Structure formats: C-alpha cells, structure tokens
Amino acid sequence: MLTIGKLGEAAGVKVPTIRYYEQIGLLPEPDRSAGNQRLYGQSALDRLAFIRHARELGFPLDAIRDLLSLSDEPDQSCAAADVIAKKQLTTVKARIVRLTALKAELERMITQCAQGTVADCRVIEVLSDHSHCAQDHRTSGAAE
Amino acid sequence: MLTIGKLGEAAGVKVPTIRYYEQIGLLPEPDRSAGNQRLYGQSALDRLAFIRHARELGFPLDAIRDLLSLSDEPDQSCAAADVIAKKQLTTVKARIVRLTALKAELERMITQCAQGTVADCRVIEVLSDHSHCAQDHRTSGAAE
DNA sequence: TCTTGAAGCTATAGCTACTAGAGACCTTAG
DNA sequence: CTAAGGTCTCTAGTAGCTATAGCTTCAAGA
To answer: How many Å lie between the alpha carbon of B7 and the closest alpha carbon of chain A?
Structure first.
C-alpha cells in the first residue's frame, strides 16, 4: 500500500495534483488508514500513470476521462479511443506548424537586433508592425 | 476616435479582452465620451496591436508588460528586450521538440490500434505503460 | 517512551488569459 | 422617435493545476 506521497513519486505526479484528480473524479476515492490518510494499491498507480502519460501526450482531461471510461468497460469498441487519438494528432500537428513559424520569426527578430538602443531595436519594431512579418503567423490559431 | 468595438476590430482583439488589458494595466485608461463610453486614439491602437502581436508570438503578458515599458523609454539599451525574446525562443524550441515526440507517439499508437475491442487496443495500452514509448517524452517539461 | 520533523489532512484562494452572462445605459440609422 | 445593436459594470466561470493556513498523523532517533 502506498501513501499519496509515494504514489506521486512513483507516477511522477505531484501530491496536490493527485488530490485534484480525485476531486474531479478521475481517480476513485481510495481506502484510508486508521488515521484518515489515503492508501493506494497497484491499480491506482496504473491509472495515475495512464493519466499522466495521456497528459504528457497533450490529451485534455475530458479526453482522458473518455479513455478511462473505455478502459473501464473493455467490451466496447476501440474506435472511440482511436478517434480521440486521431483528434489529438491533428491538434499536435497544427501546434508544431504554428510553433515552427514562431521560432523562425523569433530567430529573425533576434539575429537582426543590433544591440543598440530601444529606438532601433528590431524586437520592439517587429512587434509594433505586422508588415515586418516574414510569414503570416495570424492564420493558424492561438499562440497557446 | 474609435469606440472599443472599432478598436477591437482594427487590432483583431475582442472587446472584453481590451477591457481586461485595461484592468490589468497593460492599456492605459482611455478618455470617455459624454455617455461614459471608451474612446481610443491611434496610440491605443498601436499599443494594442503590439500586445496582440506579441501574444501571437507566444509572449506571456508579463513579458509583454516588460517589453512595453522598454518601448516607452527609447533611449535605453535594447539588451533587455533581446533577453526576453531569447527566453521566448528557448520556450518555443522546447515545445517543438516535445510536440514532435508526441506526434510520433500518437502516430505509432494509431497505426497499432487494431480496431478491435479495448481489451487489445494499443491506444489504451500504450498510455498505460511507459515502456511502450518509442521515445522518452518525459524529459522536456509539461505538455503545456 | 518521548519527541521532533516530515508528510498528510481539509478548505480556500490564487494563477493565466481570457470568456460569458446579467441587466442597465448609450448611440445611431431609419 | 423608435428600435437595434453597441457599450457599461460586475460577477462568475473556464482548464489544470498550485499555494497557503492551520491542523493531525506517522516514522525514526534519543
């Protein structure tokens, strides 16, 4: 049996986050010790690792909730989980495109900065005037 | 003179967002009409466009606040602006590395999903068990 | 056995960067 | 003059945590 601290350590999740996941119903309420402290078994560790891993993959908690409900009912089709993963892949691809454009823009700004005064600073100038943009980075969604 | 709606349209920023920026001190309090409505001039438009542009490049509002205060004093060195931009570039680069690993992982998951039941669905399995990961995507910070 | 310090508990508030809603008021086109 | 739509303030909500306060419990050393 693991205390919440050990569980967090094992799964790589901070203690308040575990309590938060319990609060929003992602993790079931665990058994308690005689002194009211949470005690976790292997299944909680697996579930938490699942959640953490999905978070790392960029899944929002709602999608994770769906995935967990799928795995809680193993007779269901995997198509639903596949749909979720594909949706995430689309999001991730879009973010990469977006960030790559931002990177180019930032690099351009920085290399052109002559280290003089603010009056002729490229960083400020580029930010002030959209016409300086090498690419139109207004088109692919929010910057995050 | 522009009303808040026209200003938002001109800068590509939603009206509540403008009021929010004013509230947190990013935009100065504008003059008001006889009927208490905000009226903006060119300088507000410039400033708002700057903010929006910096947001699009992923700068957090705190960094934008710093950049704005720098641009208010054009005789200073622009080294500080350079530092802010470089920090942002580092963040963006890290996110790209991270998201690229996630993309590979999701693609692998999807191709391996046999479209059967959840019991043999790799999507669930891969997310449950870190050892299935093609790359270690644990190393480069939070998923956002 | 006692004690001390870490770890746990609940509850509440705060964070970023907005967004949405309620209900009243102002402005402008027809 | 009226009606529609823009604007006003204020509050609360969003995601996904993180931090704080003030308390209790647990494990290890003296």
So the answer is: 16
ipTM summary value: 0.74
List of chain A residues whose C-beta atoms are within 8 Å of the C-beta of residue B117? 74-78
Mean pLDDT by 10 residues, chain B (144 residues): 95 95 94 96 94 86 88 77 86 83 80 68 66 50 35
CATH number 1.10.1660.10 is the correct assignment for the domain at B4-58? yes
CATH of A4-59, one of 1.10.1660.10, 3.60.40.10, 3.40.50.300, 1.10.3120.10: 1.10.1660.10
Tell me the residue ranges of DSSP E strands in chain B.
31-32, 38-39
Nearest residue to A140 (alpha-carbon basis) of A107, A96, A77 = A96
Neighbours of B89 (CB within 10 A): 19
